[in-house]
Amino acid sequence: LECFEDIISLEVGDTGLSRAKTLEREFDVRQLYVKYEGDNPTGTQKDRIAFAQLYDALRREFKVVSLATCGNYGVAMALAADLAGIACKIFIPESYHTDRITEMETLSAEIIRIPGSYEDVVTESSRFAA
Question: How far is CA 2 from the centre of its chain?
Answer without folding.
Answer: 21
